[in-house]
């Protein structure tokens, strides 16, 4: 196992990027020469190592917290910002809703699941430099997610999409690692497991890998959405896995919103009980008086002491015309889910231009403005964190 004092996670990221570039170069050469591509044995050994990692116990290290330490990760003092909660947030370890979803008539044209799972995507970020010295939020969008081509929770194949938001603390290294590796791990797990178990296995293995490469004092939240659509239908399946306090919110019909996640914070009585049952303690609303979230990827100084990498997984049917929002807590600290829904509905009405705009023009405008309006509203309302919002139009 590498020595964390002499091994840099950023160095690992550079190495992985170089390997990917080299692999693509080899593929191009193989196509030109019409020869079979050679198997990269070192790469296979590396992947085998990563697949087989198990969580380890680690020595505690110095203080580095999400919203606890001084410096760049500083949070507002108690009472400065009241976190906005929806009234119907019900925690559960696994939600599965097989009820059919009803299509919603919207001014954009659905994809028909021919080449992607979403009709369009709107992404916006703001480092909020007045309050934060650097950006720790990240995202990943793969639509279609070619690595899952043909995979399906049912008997027939489908088109898959992968969407994720990450919110780092103590630095960006864990976020960058997840942006580079987490979707690959999902694809690997889906070869033998269904979506629920594949997502759980992915989060645990990525967390183990982060621990192996020195993520003692830094970590990240992760909210991941897998979409599966089948050609010729207006419905599909949605799977959401998350750790931390970045949220997923579905707009299933006009002027309605539904929380798909609950915040993993030690201030939640159920999370506090779990933390104590796993040998940890909650002091002043933080795990070990240190970390303000109770589940994360990384933060190995607190693994085995109440901070868990195990995600909660939600699944349900989705349909054309619905909208999915994934966003970091920089948005949800000051914007309620109901307000986010209202802002989106307002943007949709404005984009139609009185009903005369064609679907392509409407969608192009929504992709430009919707996420940006959410981010701008969070900054206007006084968010003191990085803000990232991702809107997915189905």
TrEMBL record:
Renumbered residue ranges of the record's region Disordered: 1-115, 260-281
Organism superkingdom: Eukaryota
Keywords (A to Z) from UniProt: Hydrolase, Metal-binding, Protein phosphatase
Topological relation to the membrane, as annotated: Peripheral membrane protein
Main location: membrane
Basic and acidic residues bias locations: 20-46, 85-96
Subcellular localization: Membrane
Signal peptide: none
Polar residues bias: start-end ranges: 66-84
Domain PPM-type phosphatase: residue ranges: 120-394
Family from the record: Belongs to the PP2C family.
The protein, known as: PPM-type phosphatase domain-containing protein
Species per Swiss-Prot/TrEMBL record: Durusdinium trenchii
